[in-house]
Amino acid sequence: MSSGSRAAHSSERNPEEKLNTVATNTYSPNQRDRSGVGQHLAAENKLWEARDTDPRAREELMERYLPFARSLASRYRGANESFDDLVQVASVGLVNAVNRYEPENGTPFAAFASPTILGELKRYFRDRVWMVRVPRGLQENIRTVESSSNDLGAEFRRPPTVQEIAEHTGMEPSQVDEVLVAKLERTPVSLDQPDDDEGNTPEQRVGAMDPNFDLVEDQDEIREAMSELSSVERRVLRLRFIEDMTQSEIAERIGYSQMHVSRLLKRSLEQLKAKTAH
Fold it and tell me: pTM (2 decimals)?
């Protein structure tokens, strides 16, 4: 057919016929194979076959799916965690998935690897990032709120309100408040770290010396000093200062004169004073 005849034939066809012709020629299975998709899948199958014997095959599989691991790590991206660290953790999960994957089972690798990589990321947050342990559900809500806050902040060009975050995530405002508090408290602050312009620390603001500390020390000193007194002297001191008895009552109780009780008390107190003097 001459060029003129082909042009005339083409002009006689309606637009629908032309679209069908283009679609058939462009998207036929044979054309897709020529575009490299089929070859790519065939090449990947060969990589899985060589995974356990050829380090280069394993490395190529890692390179192919590293962007997938990065995309999963981006779900956990936040202001308090380094994205590079998250990618490293996701890469560890990817390595484990590549090692354990069995192509003959028919499951796509991405579907198999996703739980492994996400599990590695969750374990990282549980063991390394979260210094204060919170329930798993609350951890997931924190990540959801962080992601929503980043998206809304970029859209509004300002920090979003609790109500806006609640509407965006489908949570109740009270849940969002709980998440925001937990987010702030997940990393404890040292009591010795200054937290105002004057250099005051939380310990100075809320803490106080317990007076019982001195009491414990005094008890130890008195106990050690009294061990050198006689049993009668210790009994007289106990009746006087523990049971709050008068000298006359003590004298009647132990069968001594009041004068003798007075001398025992005086002598015992002088010995205790000498032993506990600093």
Answer: 0.40
Q: How many CA atoms lie within 13 A of 168 on its CB side?
A: 20
The SS3 of residue 81 is strand
- Tokens, residue 20: 């069908």
What are the residues whose beta carbons fall under 8 Å from the beta carbon of 93, sequence distance 6 or more?
A: 69, 113, 116, 117, 118, 119, 120, 121
Q: Which of 101, 129, 157 is the last residue in one of the domains?
A: 129
DSSP H or E stretch at residue 249: helix 247-254
What is the count of structural domains for the chain?
Answer: 3
Torsions phi, psi for 248 (to 5 deg):
-65, -40
When pLDDT is averaged across residues 6-16 and rounded to a whole number, the result is: 46
- Residue 163 · residue 173 · CB < 8 Å: yes
CB neighbour burial string for 223-233, b if at least 16 within 10 angstroms, e if fewer: eebbeebeeeb
**Which residues form the domain of 96?**
37-129
Domain final residue, candidates 111, 129, 147: 129
pLDDT tens for residues 243-258?
999 999 999 999 999 9
Q: Is residue 55 part of a domain?
A: yes
